[in-house]
Amino acid sequence: MNLKYSVGIDVSSEKIDVCLSRIDDKQSVKVVSSKKFTNGLSGFLKLEEWIEKNHKEKEISLVICMEATGVYHENCAFYFHQKGHKISIILPNKAKHYLISLGLKSKNDRIDAKGLSRMGAEQCLELWEPMGIFFYKLRQYTRQYQNLQEQKTVFKNQLHAFEHSMYDNSEMMEYQKNIILLIDSQLKGIKESIKKHLDSDPIIKQKVEGICKIKGISTLSLGTILAETNGFSLFKNYKQLVSFAGFDVVENESGNSRGRTRISKKGNGRIRRALFMPAFTAVKHNEKPLSNLFHRTYEKHGIKLKSYVAVQKKLLVLVYHLWKKNQAYDPLYNQMKYNSPKQVEATPDKLTFLEEKKLSII
User: What is the rounded average pLDDT of the residues 41-49?
Assistant: First the structure.
């Protein structure tokens, strides 16, 4: 008796390799058919007919699994999502480790499609939902901004090398300076486009203005977070968001051995990068409870960078809660709580404990 059908799709810029498998009640996975199609509308139409032909038991569910490959998989995923199919997008490192676990030594597009098909049949994978057009456009702006920032750093380093080289080359230095000026103008234009795009939706504009009251959070940094998380729409709680951004804690312990405890960094690095400078700014301007968290953690281990990472994580979760609750940031909120009559009457020891407990929230 068959339990599930799964279509594995390995996507490249020009073609897609597909493999359809099924799993039975004995947990045995069998390949039904494999084929190649072009990565375009005509190929999607033929692929849809091929799936319809080989998915003979219509009452049994079918899932389509594909690996995230830049932007080349997006049109295919969106097309079949619109047709009502269940779609799962697999991260490349997850697919790679799964294929390794199968003991496969060779690698090509056909083998990758077969592995994705088997993975979809055996596992209950999270289903994919397409990003809304508003946040999709916002992501294009913010990612291009980060790409240009990286290019600017490269050209500035090259200019520095020319300025300190053994022989002067004023012509090359002038080229580098002109390129940096051009990138600066592009960055300014994209930053204005991000602001204009966020202001185009009245509800989002209100939320952004309320959250940007946090010292350190700018329109650019908040726009990057919203773009990479699809406006937090795919997260049920803040723990999922923390894991998505790579801020979740990884422990390394076995018996009496105690390894280093650190954040996983297995997540969206663009979010962590966007929160790097806001964390420094929040601490510099004594933005509570962020500065309190920094000083409290720094007293424990004496590592500034580790404390700044803790502030980044708290900033992300704070932004998440404000966005979900549709609330503006109030810098006096914690101060009002601490100065409430109930806590003023508490003993110094109890007051310290209450403060610690409140600072650990979020």
Answer: 94
Class of domain 2-122: alpha beta
The predicted model scores a pTM of: 0.77
Q: Structural domain boundaries of the chain?
A: 2-122, 133-200, 223-331
**Who's near 84: CB < 8 A, 6+ residues apart?**
none
Q: What tokens were used for 220?
A: 């650019």
Cα 311 from Cα 291, distance rounded (Å): 8
Query: What is the β-pairing status of strands 86-90 and 62-67?
Result: parallel
Distance CA 77, CA 64 (A): 9
Give 28-37's long-range contacts (Cβ < 8 A, gap of 24+). Answer: 29/118, 29/121, 29/122, 31/114, 31/117, 32/5, 34/110, 34/113, 34/114
- Predicted confidence band at 334 (pLDDT cuts at 50, 70, 90)? low
Note the pLDDT tens digit of each residue in 146-176. 999 999 999 999 999 999 988 888 999 999 9
